[in-house]
Specification:
The protein is of the alpha/beta class. It is 41% helix and 12% strand. The strands form 8 sheets. It has a 4-stranded mixed β-sheet. It has a 4-stranded antiparallel β-sheet with strand order 13-21-12-22. The radius of gyration is 35 Å and the shape is elongated. The termini are far apart. Bound molecules: zinc ion (ZN). The site of zinc ion has 8 residues, from loops. Zinc ion binds next to loops.
Length: 769
């Protein structure tokens, strides 16, 4: 039986804990540590088990906001020190927009709890005290002060307190502190107290001595009742609310600890039954690497930033409350392993499998429990993490191959969601061998020696026969030995072929993370280019009434090929939800992109070479594919301009080949790609002053002048595409090693995407050479 169901059964069968009332608490004196999530989650899971067992159950979660501030996180010391000793609810919030110090941290933790599906009613200690709910227990405590002292001594062995000690504190009427007051007399209606300058080390009392009522005063709402010390306050809460089930971390449940004291207080002072106890084990996160990790810090709210809420919750559901949880996600496979285990439980649920696994899945759901789908395919987290890093790979197509048939809509949705999760993992937590991307740079035969190529070609065969990374790793060494080359030379060849780097992570694991066809192709690069076989027949066009490549330019750059298209009757809008979704998925696929990587893309290298020849410094003016990708690498995301520009920008980033679209009603045909004229100016998009061309710069011109600058640096205002644009003129820029095939591919994908999101019809499209 599942652990929480077993607890529910035990509670129900005992007959001793009715009505069923589960409770837990938190003191909002700082951001909740991630480890403190176990308490509320264990209670919530037991609560749900009681509900599932058909029992009417109440679940409250108390914020102890009447407690004094008895310490501060380092970043708040400067600002909040004057309020040490004040009740959390009476000190101002360290940040604007919150009602109090307590409110700031309470709201933060509540959000985490709600995100993780904790369905408790939230209650506030301050409000309960101030509503007079504690007046009765305060009276009992003051009347039984000596017995309480005796319990403290007997149970925990604490030293005897001063004569006349009373377990209560009041808010000092002079300075407002609570943590510094000592109550030393009780006459049955009033208490006498002193605000002690040196009773505690963390706050200094003002020295005032006064007499006040420890109860609420219905006639004076400004009067504060007394506050019980924590060890007494805990069982007092149980009595006030009627709590019958409440646990605590096992540190509180040790012999002579606060739970034992509370149990005695229940029996001898409050005369209530001791609630059912749940002494739960610790939740430990991360090893040493935690402190330096970027995403997952030590705060409770970080968990839902890293994992989907149901998987985050699953961490707590899956493990019996009496076992410690150790979660070490940095540089390990802990997160993919967690997803695998979650999927295993999900499948048990889908296919009516093991009861424990099924319950772990069901109790991890935040809202509705998903519909059972027999035989459902759950795209594996680590497969998506691998596939997304491969160049020119259609994720859904690959997953369909793994599944053996097309993905259903539901399965595609899971894969889509996991794109985001894998992006976070890859950029923050994945072990090194998972972060490397396979190279797409062409290698020529001369980059490696014959013996190295021979080694790689043999390795391609070995790769297929070695079924796991470990086996492959040892086979690589054996192969090098057999071929009589030293392992350094062998591994260098391997890393150059696969990563275009001289070093890399453990080769067996690296090679096994990529799909077969891609690895084999890289290891056999010397055997002719497989891409060349896929060559399409290009549709070259001649449309001199629309466009020509200037003769002198053609002579200087015979490699230039330009894609052109005329699209009529488009309807451009500001944005489109489906396009935004496509953009987000694409953005997620670029996770881990660095500015250094950009300089290794052959297309970018080509454009930079041209810039150099035009006398333009590519550090100050960047070719458009580079500029767009650089933005992403710097974490600035994608632009939202309009549905036309956003569409082709996706293609630009995908193939790193520049595409430009212009409002063809503002273009005076024929146009040409040519050298700029001396003294010519262009008013660029977003600028107020025109920019002067130099004679070495390449630009697209119409009859009125240039409408772009430096091939693909920026475009003119006068031809820009807006939501009023009806007809489009498209240019795609190829030069040097960017082949007419590549130009055509970018052209077709751009026009297809524009048609998809802006409608219209293509008048003509093709490549001009
Ligand atoms: Zn005072």
């Amino acid at each position: 039986m599942f652990w929480s169901d077993k607890i529910a059964k035990e509670i129900i069968e005992s007959g001793a804990h009715t009505p069923y009332w589960v409770d837990d608490m938190f003191t909002p004196s700082g951001f909740a540590h991630i480890g403190s999530l176990r308490g509320p989650l264990v209670h919530d899971i037991v609560y749900r088990s009681l509900i599932d067992a058909g029992k009417k159950t109440t679940f409250t979660y108390i914020f102890n906001d009447f407690d004094p501030i008895d310490g501060l996180p380092p970043e708040l010391v400067a600002k909040s020190s004057p309020y040490l000793g004040f009740p959390l609810r009476m000190a101002p919030s360290p940040v604007d927009g919150y009602k109090s110090f307590a409110d700031y941290f309470t709201r933060d933790f509540q959000k985490v709890l709600l995100d993780l599906g904790v369905r408790a009613e939230f209650r506030y200690s301050w409000d309960m005290y101030h509503a007079g709910k504690f007046d009765g227990v305060i009276c009992e405590v003051l009347d039984h002060a000596s017995e309480i002292q005796e319990i403290y001594q007997r149970v925990s062995g604490s030293k005897k307190r001063d004569k006349g000690w009373l377990p209560l504190q009041v808010v000092c009427e002079k300075c407002g502190r609570l943590g510094t007051t000592r109550v030393h007399a009780w006459d049955g209606t009033m208490v006498t107290y002193t605000c002690e300058p040196s009773m505690v080390t963390w706050a200094r009392g003002c020295g005032f001595t006064g007499k006040t009522s420890p109860f609420t005063d219905p006639k004076n709402s400004a009067h504060h009742p007394g506050k019980l010390p924590w060890k007494v306050d805990w069982p007092a809460h149980w009595k006030v609310l009627g709590v019958t089930i409440e646990g605590a971390g096992k540190d509180h449940s040790s012999a002579g600890g606060s739970r034992d004291i509370a149990k005695e207080l229940c029996k001898e002072v409050f005369h209530i039954d001791n609630p059912y106890n749940l002494p739960y084990e610790f939740f430990l996160i991360g090893g040493k690497k935690m402190s330096s990790s970027k995403g997952l810090g030590l705060k409770g709210r970080d968990l839902t930033g890293v994992l989907p809420a149901s998987v985050g919750r699953f961490l707590f559901t899956r493990t019996d409350y009496r076992q410690a949880i150790e979660f070490d996600p940095v540089g390990t496979m802990a997160i993919p392993d967690l997803f695998d285990e979650y999927d295993r439980c999900w499948q048990a649920y889908n296919n009516d499998g093991d009861e424990n696994l099924t319950r772990a899945f069901v109790l991890s759901q935040i809202n509705d429990i998903p519909k059972k789908v027999k035989g459902m395919y759950i795209p594996r987290f680590r497969d998506i993490a691998n596939l997304r890093q491969l160049p020119n790979v259609d994720l859904f197509e690959r997953l369909a191959q793994l599944k053996g048939s097309e993905l259903t809509e539901g399965e595609e949705k899971i894969a889509g969601d996991r794109l985001t999760d894998t992006a976070i993992w890859l950029s923050n937590y994945a072990p090194d061998e998972y972060r490397f991307q396979i190279s797409i740079t062409p290698l020529s035969e001369t980059d490696l020696s014959d013996i190295q190529w021979s080694f790689l070609n043999d390795l391609a065969v070995v790769w297929e026969s070695a079924e796991d990374p470990e086996k492959l790793q040892s086979e690589i060494f054996q192969l090098a030995k057999k071929k009589n080359i030293d392992s350094k030379t062998a591994f260098e060849a391997l890393y150059i072929a696969v990563l275009d780097k001289k070093h890399g992570p453990r080769a067996g694991w690296l090679l096994k993370k990529f799909p077969k066809d891609i690895v084999i192709a890289r290891l056999n690069l010397n055997k002719g280019k497989p891409e060349a076989a896929k060559k399409t027949t290009i549709q070259f066009v001649q449309k001199s009434e629309y466009f020509e490549i200037d003769k002198s330019l053609r002579e200087k750059y015979p490699s230039v090929s330009i894609g052109v298209a005329l699209i009529k009757g488009v309807h451009v809008t500001k944005s489109n939800p489906a396009l935004e979704k496509e953009k987000n998925a694409f953005l997620a696929s670029l996770a881990g992109l660095t500015t250094e990587t950009l300089g290794t893309y052959p297309e970018v290298i080509n454009y930079r070479k041209l810039y150099k020849e035009m006398g333009v410094d590519w550090h100050s003016r960047r070719p458009s594919p580079e500029a767009l990708l650089r933005r992403v690498a710097l974490g600035k995301g994608l632009y939202t301009v309009n549905t036309c520009v956003d569409s082709y920008n996706l293609v630009v980033m995908k193939h790193r080949i520049s595409v430009g679209a212009f409002d063809s009603d503002n273009v005076k045909f024929p146009t040409a790609l040519r050298y700029a004229g001396a003294g010519d100016k262009i008013l660029l998009l977003g600028d107020k002053e025109p920019t002067l061309y130099t004679e070495k710069e390449l630009a697209y011109y119409d009859k009125d002048g240039g409408y772009n600058i430096d091939f693909n640096f920026r475009d003119a205002q006068r031809t820009m595409v807006t939501e009023n644009t009806k007809n489009l003129w498209i240019n795609v820029d190829g030069v040097f090693d960017i082949t007419p095939e590549q130009v055509e591919q970018s052209l077709r994908e751009s026009t297809q995407l524009i048609l998809k999101y802006c409608g219209g019809t293509i008048e003509f499209q093709g490549v001009v050479k």
